[in-house]
Amino acid sequence: MATGGKELNATGEFFRRRDEWRKHPKVGNQLRHATPGLGIAIVAFGIYLVGEAAYNRIYRPSGDHHH
C-alpha cells in the first residue's frame, strides 16, 4: 500500500511539473487579453448557425430543393 501512495505522489508531481509553464507571466492569457469577447462571439455564432439550420428545415418551401 505504501507504493500506491508513492505512485499518487509521483503522478501529482508529474502533472504539477507539466502545468508549470501555464503560470509563466509571458504565457498567461495573452490571447484572451488580445481578443476580448472572442469566445462569446464564437458561441453566439454557433447558436446562430444551429438556429438557421433548424429554421431552414422547418420552414423550407416544399417545391424548392435548392436556391
Structural class: mainly alpha
Instruction: Calculate Rg over CA atoms.
Output: 24 Å
Helical residue percent band: 55-70%
The geometry reads as elongated
Number of strands: 0
The rounded distance between the terminal residues' Cα atoms is 69 Å
What series of H and E elements makes up the topology?
HHH
Question: What is the residue-mean pLDDT, rounded to a whole number?
Answer: 76
Largest sheet: none
Q: Total helix count?
A: 3
Strand content: under 5%
Model regions low in confidence, pLDDT < 50 over at least 5 residues: 1-7
Subcellular location: Mitochondrion inner membrane
Organism: Zizania palustris (Northern wild rice)
Protein name: NADH dehydrogenase [ubiquinone] 1 beta subcomplex subunit 3-B
Pfam families: NDUF_B12 (PF08122)
Describe the protein's architecture and organization.
This protein is mainly alpha-helical and 67 residues long. The protein is built from 3 helices and no strands. It has helices at 2-18, 30-34, 38-58. The chain is elongated.
Brief descriptors of the model:
single chain, 67 residues, mainly alpha, 64% helix, elongated, disordered N terminus, transport, NDUFB3, mitochondrion, NADH dehydrogenase [ubiquinone] 1 beta subcomplex subunit 3-B
